[in-house]
């Protein structure tokens, strides 16, 4: 099926930078991007303490994401950030269930689905991260792990209408999937383009069966896992890979700019 899915590159700053460097680096990157005719969407997922300042510096060329968002609109959840809080800062969406959140902070398929639901009901983008461990891959459980993570999250989101996942602009759907093999996160060991495409094809096939082929053809699937300047083009050449979730290679403004331009 012919598609016009727009490529999207998101830099995940994780727990790096301070207020001064975050502001300067975001401005520098925005200035570099602002001078280009972009065929891709570019975003940065920044630590929540910087979002207020960065939202004033986007120049409408960089999509600002949070790294996490709670499923409740408000309540006694000390230390959490709600979707309405993010929306009031003109943050456009959030990562959900990054592998580090799953591995270190107890994120589950059910809780990630609740977060997805809260974001989408607010008209914000949800980038749902899924992926397998090395042990699961070696045991041949790739398909089982990915489809279970997706299905349980979708059920927990309590969103029943396909149109809600797509949002009002079919060319800019609210739901995206980020495939990130756990064994490639921060290790320097990236999946090959063949391995990445295999996983993305499994995800695309599941989306077709869970929703329908037309919806599946509109949803973006990103690859994340040691994405760098020297391998990003190879990933972007795969038919089911629509973008990248970039960690360490997004921390330097010029390096991230160069990476984005290689995908433009």
In short:
An eight-stranded parallel beta barrel has the order 1-2-3-4-5-6-7-8, surrounded by four helices.
Describe this structure in words.
It is built from twelve helices and eight strands. It is an alpha/beta fold and 264 residues long. An eight-stranded parallel beta barrel has the order 1-2-3-4-5-6-7-8, surrounded by four helices. 43% of the residues are buried.
Key traits:
8 strands; 12 helices; 42% helix; 264 residues; alpha/beta
Low-confidence stretches: none
- The portion of residues forming beta strands comes to 5-15%
- Characterize the overall form: globular
**Radius of gyration computed on alpha carbons:** 17 Å
SS-derived structural category: alpha/beta
Estimate percent helicity. 40-55%
Mean pLDDT over the full residue set: 94
Distance between the termini: 22 Å
Strand order of the largest sheet: 1-2-3-4-5-6-7-8
Blueprint (SSEs and pairs):
Elements: E1 8-12, H1 19-34, E2 41-45, H2 51-54, E3 63-66, H3 83-88, E4 93-96, H4 99-105, H5 109-121, E5 125-130, H6 134-138, H7 142-157, H8 162-166, E6 175-179, H9 193-210, H10 213-218, E7 220-224, H11 232-236, E8 243-246, H12 253-263
Parallel strand pairs: 1-2, 1-8, 2-3, 3-4, 4-5, 5-6, 6-7, 7-8
Helix pairs in contact: 1-12, 5-7, 7-9
């Amino acid at each position: 099926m012919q598609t016009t899915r727009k490529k999207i590159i998101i830099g995940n700053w994780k727990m790096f930078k301070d207020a001064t460097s975050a502001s300067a680096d975001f401005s520098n990157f925005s200035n570099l991007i602002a001078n280009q005719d972009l065929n891709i969407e570019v975003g940065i997922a920044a630590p929540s303490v910087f979002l207020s300042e960065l939202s004033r510096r986007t120049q409408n060329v960089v999509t600002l994401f949070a790294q996490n968002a709670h499923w409740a609109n408000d309540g006694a959840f000390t230390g959490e950030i709600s979707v309405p809080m993010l929306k009031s800062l003109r943050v456009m969406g959030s990562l959900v269930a990054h592998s580090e959140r799953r591995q270190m902070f107890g994120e589950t398929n059910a809780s990630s689905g609740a977060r997805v639901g809260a974001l989408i009901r607010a008209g914000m983008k949800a980038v749902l991260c899924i992926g397998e461990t090395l042990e699961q891959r070696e045991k041949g459980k790739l398909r089982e792990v990915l489809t279970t993570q997706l299905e349980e999250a979708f059920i927990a989101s309590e969103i029943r209408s396909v149109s809600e996942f797509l949002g009002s602009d079919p060319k800019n759907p609210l739901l995206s999937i980020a495939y990130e093999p756990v064994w490639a996160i921060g290790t320097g060991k990236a999946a090959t383009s063949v391995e990445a495409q295999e996983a993305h094809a499994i995800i695309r096939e599941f989306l077709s069966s869970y929703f329908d082929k037309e919806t599946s053809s509109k949803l973006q699937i990103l690859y994340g896992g040691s994405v760098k300047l020297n391998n990003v083009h190879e990933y972007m050449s795969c038919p089911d890979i629509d973008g990248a979730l970039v960690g360490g290679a997004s921390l330097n403004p010029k390096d991230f700019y160069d990476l984005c331009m290689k995908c433009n």
